[in-house]
Design a protein that fits this description.
By secondary structure, the chain is mostly beta strands. It is built from four helices and 48 strands.
Length: 755
């Protein structure tokens, strides 16, 4: 029974003397007091008639003891408890369960990682008690476990009916740099950024918002790992299915500039149909001008279609072709002068459509045979600047006809022209176009004929880039050996980005930050088709590489080196574009790797700040690592903060075919806080955002002990207990405690610690 006055509450506990409790111990969270004289309350008895003749009691301690008992019962039974989320603290949230403060780790707030979750503050939620330590006043809760149990019934029903190809409804639950997680009703699926739209998307927030209800298509479903890949663009019409007849090579169309890169710019002809304007196709006179000097993002421009590859879903565009060619104008003036003064016409014949293609050789002949009309042209790739070639066209066994050679496009600048066999020297490297007619007046003819182009110089490997310090003017084949002065290769760079190689329509070159590919013909036996290659169904060899049909770290596609034909000690290099670390607070490079095989070689990650003149090794891994995919994390802040860098992923093959190495999900990002994310481990880090496998579980690791711990990885030999003849059954050494059923007479209570 209690009696209340203004500041104190007098409580009669059945003893000779009464006890008093501060009125503040009876206040609610809002400051109000709900107690009246005669009410019965639970209190804890601290001392009976102390030196001052008073009985010390506490309602607060009684409430705490009652709450701890409640928490202990919840821990043992697995039942949930209610608590109020107070505020965000380092590593998570502070939660109040009655009068006991508890900790909610950030990793256990939701099923999916959340960054802030301000909507949880000052709300009452259900939690599962996962750790309880009375002595240390430590309570750890999990909201994630509650959500998983709630979703489990829905998940079971969903798994029964879920199948690939279905169109289902979902709610956008989380947005990341690489895509969005969509709640399908108890199961989350990944909607990768490449599957959001047929158009280019740089961030998922451009298309989606948290809480959006959307229709998505099930692209793949791994029932064992419960991994679902979703697609949004797949339920929309593919624009590439309708471009047939819309665009033709040589046609001029309006486009919108969608992206600028160091190697050119992308222009969108229509939604989902995008083409690349290479640096060389921007301006007639300046071959290395940066796109930002010519066009702006979203600018409407006129472009010419140079090439359409339906299989690879690629369109090559030209900007300069829509403008007068200064050299062409000069040629017209010269031709006009010749006609004016001599009456002799020296025709330059431009045909309209391609009938064949080939790759030129530096020292031998290649031929193209056709029986089409001779008003068409042939495409010759692999031409090197400074090298000479001889063109001829044979009709009916006779070498005759008039030859016109253009560069960069079928109607591009005229390199040379004359009656065949006709020899010319290339001004630029790249594809050239060989036009043939009967004579200089562009007379047409029909019949089966053969176009032949012969290289007149031996192959000279070397650096063919005039901006490099080791430029070799005699070289006619670039071997990837170019060295650039410090700062020239990385005058600017990109920021945070990721590349998962998920778009099946996009080849290797120019993806994400990995725009430059290096192949050293002098030291490596890997070829352009037998180095880093893209796939999603496993490698071609048994007992090596990612498992056949197994998904990679992110999505399905990855890059790998097939060592069956690569030889021993072959090297494949993958070099990134320039990355500006000034864009980061704490920069890191994170990547996935698979190194499964008996004769695995070595995977290295190297860095350069001077354009490749000097490389420094940051990370290395050698030998068989097993079948799973692993993640590597390289912090770049210590030595390279504020610099512009390039990274190189280099694989050196082993001694046989069982050495296929794969990489995936390459990311430049803010450094994740790597650490132990298991709250049951002694080194649990509540601030960790990526588990680094460092969790420590101490215990007796001696299998001869009766308390042997098979899941422990830190041997605590002092805790081992061994059987003896007179030994009682082992039990936890808890401090003895007793609790009266009378609420007003608690004795000293010590609750056990739960590991």
């Amino acid at each position: 029974m209690c009696i209340r006055d203004r500041e104190w509450v007098t409580v009669h506990v059945g003893l000779k003397s009464e006890g008093v409790i501060s009125l503040d111990e009876f206040r609610n969270n809002d400051g109000s007091v709900e107690i009246a004289s005669g009410d019965e309350v639970q209190v804890a008895l601290e001392a009976v008639e102390d030196g001052y003749g008073e009985t010390r009691i506490s309602r607060e301690k009684a409430r705490k003891i009652g709450t701890w008992k409640k928490l202990e019962e919840a821990l043992d039974s697995g039942e949930f408890v209610e608590g109020k989320v107070l505020t965000r603290v380092k590593g998570g949230f502070s939660v109040e369960v009655d009068v006991v403060k508890a900790f909610l780790p950030g990793s256990l707030v939701d099923i999916r990682p959340v960054k802030e979750a301000p909507e949880l503050e000052n709300t009452v939620q259900e939690f599962k008690v996962i750790k309880l330590d009375y002595k240390r006043n430590n309570v750890v809760l999990s909201r994630k476990a509650v959500l998983e149990k709630i979703n489990s019934a829905e998940k079971v029903e969903l798994l029964k009916n879920l199948d690939e190809g279905q169109i289902v409804k979902g709610i956008v639950k989380n947005l990341t740099d690489y895509g969005a997680f969509v709640d399908l009703g108890g199961l989350d699926g990944l909607l990768h950024i490449t599957d959001l739209s047929w158009s280019r998307v740089t961030n998922p927030s451009e298309v989606l918002s948290l809480g959006d209800e959307i229709d998505v298509k099930i692209l793949s479903f791994d029932k064992e790992k419960l991994r679902v890949s979703l697609g949004l663009k797949q339920i929309q019409n593919d624009p590439w299915e309708t471009i047939e007849g819309k665009y033709s090579v040589g046609g001029i169309y309006e486009a919108s500039v969608s992206n600028l890169t160091d190697y050119g710019c992308f222009a969108e002809l229509e939604q989902g149909v995008e083409g690349l304007i290479h640096l060389s196709e921007l301006d007639w006179t300046n071959k290395n001008i940066h796109p930002s000097k010519v066009v702006d993002i979203e600018e409407k421009i006129k472009v010419m279609v140079l090439e359409i590859d339906h299989d690879k879903r690629r369109i090559s565009l030209g900007l300069k072709q829509t403008k007068p060619n200064p050299r062409r104008i000069l040629g017209y003036l010269m031709a006009f002068a010749m006609v004016f003064f001599t009456t002799n016409v020296n025709g330059q014949c431009f045909n309209t459509s391609s009938y064949g293609s080939a790759t030129a050789s530096a020292s031998s002949a290649v031929s193209i045979t056709t029986c089409q009309y001779l008003t068409e042209y042939s495409t010759i790739s692999g031409i090197y600047a400074g090298s000479s070639y001889t063109c001829a066209v044979t009709l009916g066994g006779l070498n005759t006809g008039y030859v016109t050679v253009t560069e960069l496009s079928p109607t591009g600048a005229v390199v040379s022209h004359g009656y065949g066999p006709h020899t010319f020297t290339a001004n630029t490297s790249g594809t050239h176009y060989i036009h043939w007619t009967v004579d200089s007046l562009c007379t047409q003819a029909t019949g089966c004929h053969v176009s032949t182009i012969t290289g007149n110089a031996p192959l000279v490997p070397g650096c063919t880039d005039t901006s490099a310090t080791n430029y070799n003017p005699l070289a006619n084949s670039d071997d990837g050996s170019c060295i650039y002065p410090p700062g020239t290769a990385c005058a600017s760079g990109i920021g945070a980005n990721s590349e998962s190689f998920e778009d099946p329509a996009v080849g290797l070159y120019g993806q994400g930050p990995w725009a430059e590919w290096t192949y050293n013909t002098l030291t490596s036996t890997f070829t352009s088709t037998n180095g880093w290659r893209k796939d999603n169904i496993g490698t071609g060899s048994l007992n090596t590489g990612p498992l056949n049909g197994a998904a990679s770290l992110d999505g399905d596609y990855y890059l790998y080196c097939e060592t069956s034909g690569g030889g021993i000690g072959a090297v494949a290099n993958l070099v990134s574009s320039c990355v500006d670390l000034n864009n980061f607070t704490d920069p890191a490079f994170v990547f996935g790797y698979s190194m499964y095989g008996a004769t695995m070689g070595t995977l290295n990650v190297d860095i350069t700040t001077d354009g490749g003149s000097n490389w420094t090794n940051l990370w290395t891994k050698t030998g068989d690592q097993g079948q799973p995919w692993f993640e590597g994390v390289i912090n770049l802040n210590n030595s390279y903060a504020g610099q512009i860098i390039q990274l190189r992923m280099s694989y050196t093959s082993g001694t046989s075919f069982t050495g296929d190495c794969a990489i995936d999900f390459l990311r430049f990002m803010e450094s994740p806080n790597a650490g132990c994310m298991d709250p049951f481990a002694i080194n649990f880090d509540p601030t960790a955002t990526m588990d680094d496998g460092s969790c420590l579980y101490p215990g007796c690791t001696d299998p001869m002990a009766i308390n042997f711990c098979s899941s422990c990885n830190v041997n605590d030999s002092l805790s081992c207990v061994y059987p003896s003849a007179n030994m009682l059954p082992f039990c936890d050494d808890f401090e003895s405690a007793s609790l009266s059923t009378n609420a007003v007479s608690y004795t000293h209570l010590t609750l056990p610690t739960k590991a």
